[in-house]
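User: Could you walk me through two proteins back to back? I'd like the raw sequence and the C-alpha cells for each, with a short line separating them so I can tell where one ends and the next begins.

Assistant: Of course. Protein one, sequence then structure:
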Amino acid sequence: MSFFGKIFGEKENNPEKKSFWRSITSESDLAEAVENSYENTIVIFKHSTSCYISKTILKNFEKEIENLDQKISFYYLDLLAHRSVSNKIAADFGIRHESPQLIVIEDGKAVNNASHQDISISLIR
C-alpha cells in the first residue's frame, strides 16, 4: 500500500474483504439479519465510508473481533450507499442514527448500541 493510501485509506482495507462481515444492502437483507437474531446474536456496524473517524473505529473494532469464538453474526452497512436502510434501522429499533454506529440485536430487538469511541466488543453480551 502506498504512503498516501495508508493515510487516506485505500480499498485494501475494505471491511467486506474480512470473512466475518455480511453486507446489508437492502431492506430484505435487514429483514434476514433480524430473523437470524432469533438463532444467535447479530451485530450491525453502520459505517460512513467517507469519514476518517468511522474508518478508524471500524479498523479497531475488526481487530477486537477477529478471534472472537462466540456465535455472533456481524453485518456491515455502508450507510452512504444505503441510507434508506440506515433510516429503517433507526425507525424500526428506535435508535437515533449516528455514524459510526454499532447495534446489537437479539430476538428481533436492539439490546445495545453505541457510536464513535464507545464502540467495543464489550457491548456484545
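----
Protein two, same layout:
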Amino acid sequence: MKWITRERPKIDRIACPWLIKRFVDNEAEFMYVPSDKVIQLSKEHGAIPFDIPNVEYTHYGDECTFDYIIKKHKIADPAIQTLAIIVRGADTDRHDLASQVAGLWAISAGMAYNITNDYELLAQGMIVYDGLYTWAKLLQHEKHTQNPFENTLRDVYQKFLSEKKKSKDVPGWAKELKEIIQDQIDTNLTLSLKEISHSLNVHPSYLSREFSKYFGDLSFGDYIRKLRIEKSIELLKDPNYSLAEIAYLTGFSDQSHFNRIFKNLIGKTPAVYRKNLREK
C-alpha cells in the first residue's frame, strides 16, 4: 500500500512510516510531497494521506498520528506504548512527558537539518527508531556508567539511601565512600556529582547536602580538589615528574588549572612550592 504526507519530515512523518513498516505493512511505500499537493496526489496514486489536517490518519486532541495508527491497527506491544509517549512528546513539544523526549527531538531536528533528501532521511530515521524500539523493549532498566568506579560509587549511595539513619554517628556509606575516593585518587580521578546523581536518579542538591555532612563541610567538588592537591604535594617531592605530568596524574584539565587551584588552596604556585622543598 502507498502512503503520502507532507515533505520535510522530522518526528511523526518519520515515526509513522517506521511503525507502519514494522507493524502494519512491511511492503508499504511512502511519498513526501508539498503540503498543498498531498490530497491531489493521494487520489492520483491511490495512496493513504497521513499527518495532515482533515484526513483519517492525523492528530486527535493531544495525541499525534503515531497514536492513531496504534489504536487503528490495535498494536498492543508494550514497547510501542512506551515509544508512543516519546514520539507524542517530541512531536507536540511536550518534553515533560518522558525524559527521552528532548533527546528524540534533538536527534530528529539535527538529522532533518543535515539530510535534505526526505527519502534518505527516512532511511536513516528507520535505524533510529529500530534502536529506540529495542531500548523500549529490552533495555529500559539498563544504565550507562562511565567506569567501574562510578558503578561502585552508585552501589555505595544506594546502600545509604536504603538505610534509616537513627543516630548522629558517621554512617557506613560515608566511611566506605571516603575509602573508595581515596583509593581512586591515584588514577587520574575525574568525577561529576551531576553525573553520579543522574545515574542514581537522585537530585544533585540532595547528594551534595548529604555529602558535606560527613566530609568536613566540604562540597563534593571541594573535597575531590582537596584530595587532588594533597596527592600533588606528594608528587612534587619527586623531581622525575614535571608539573604538567602532575596536573594530569591528579585529574586537572591542564597545568594552568592545576596552578590556579593549587595556589588558591596552598597560597603559592606548585613551582614555588617545589622550589621551597628543594631549598630545605
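The chain is about 60% helix and 5% strand.

Let me know if you want the two compared in more detail.
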